From TrEMBL:
Organism name: Nonomuraea fuscirosea
Record-linked PANTHER family: BLL4672 PROTEIN, BLL4672 PROTEIN-RELATED
UniProt protein name: Helix-turn-helix protein
One term of GO molecular function: DNA binding
Boundaries of every HTH cro/C1-type domain copy: 32-83
InterPro entries cross-referenced by the UniProt entry: Cro/C1-type_HTH (IPR001387), Lambda_DNA-bd_dom_sf (IPR010982), MLTR_LBD (IPR041413)
């Protein structure tokens, strides 16, 4: 039975207080009073408005959506049991077995925070972008400006229209990437047969993309390999990067990491983007973004 004095607001404050700025890739400035994360920092990390976080902690917002709770759990680096506790405090059922997890282990989050110099994106098993470094937002475009559906890489590769590659300025790698993505979705469907979002995505692409339908019906198999990718940026033009896909044993998330050779013209372009967008040398953002929409 839950503690009668425990609310989602008290739990959020407790979890926020235990995180240090370094845990989320921030620099603790001199004179900082808060030992843990500020509400403003939690709001930015979770993609929420500061006012909404305040209302949650004060108990004035009592019915957050499952998407909001999942975002807060990732931002606060909760363990699975703590994440489930947050869902219950919000009056929601925790994610059930057979569905794709959006949980990013705390160790992975700390590692990504320390890779702030590089564009890094963290993806779930269905290739939906879960979190990213400021350098990723500068190079690829701020994912916070896209809907959750538009943050799915498979949809971006195969779909046409506004959800397609127009929102991801990475030139398509062709059949190799396509086969690997289709194979990943097939594996995810075996592992998560009860995930409605995954089955809907597959059904959508089988109808909307002849290429996806062909590869799916063929039983395409493939694997991700290190590759060169060209990113077309509106400020600096083409940036050629080495792309690596990293996996974590015992965890479903994938890390996509873009790097360039030191001293190259592409490195100069990335440095220019970091400086002009206000990122420090380690890729961290010195000021908060906003405002964010209230759910």
């Amino acid at each position: 039975m839950e503690d009668v004095d425990e609310t989602l607001g008290t739990a959020l404050r407790r979890w926020r207080d235990r995180l240090s700025p370094a845990d989320v890739g921030r620099i603790a400035r001199a004179g900082r009073r808060a030992a843990g994360l500020r509400r403003e920092e939690l709001a930015e990390l979770a993609g929420l408005s500061v006012d909404y976080v305040v209302r949650l902690e004060q108990g004035r917002a009592t019915h957050p959506s499952a998407q909001v709770v999942a975002s807060l759990a990732r931002a606060l680096q909760l363990e699975p049991a703590e994440r489930d506790h947050a869902y219950r405090l919000a009056g929601l059922l925790p994610p059930r077995d057979g569905t794709i997890s959006t949980h990013v282990p705390a160790g992975v989050q700390r590692m990504v925070a320390r890779l702030g110099e590089f564009p890094v994106g963290v993806f779930s098993a269905d290739w939906t972008l879960l979190s990213w470094t400021p350098a990723w937002a500068v190079l690829i475009g701020d994912p916070a400006a896209r809907s959750p559906a538009e943050r799915n890489l498979v949809r971006a590769v195969f779909a046409t229209g506004p959800r397609g590659l127009a929102s991801w300025p990475v030139l398509n790698d062709g059949d190799g990437l396509n086969r690997a993505l289709v194979a990943d979705l097939r594996t995810a469907l075996v592992d998560h047969p009860a995930d409605r979002g995954l089955t809907d995505l597959i059904a959508e692409l089988r109808v909307g993309s002849a290429e996806f339908a062909r590869l799916w019906d063929e039983g395409a198999v493939g694997r991700h390999v290190s590759a060169r990718k060209v990113i077309v940026h509106p400020q600096v033009g083409e940036v050629t990067c080495d792309c690596d896909v990293l996996t974590v044993p015992g965890c479903e998330v994938r890390l996509v990491l873009y790097t360039v050779a030191a001293g190259s013209a592409d490195a100069e372009k990335l440095e220019f983007l970091r400086v002009t967008n206000g990122l420090s040398a380690d890729g961290s953002a010195p000021s908060l973004r906003g405002p964010f929409p209230t759910p």
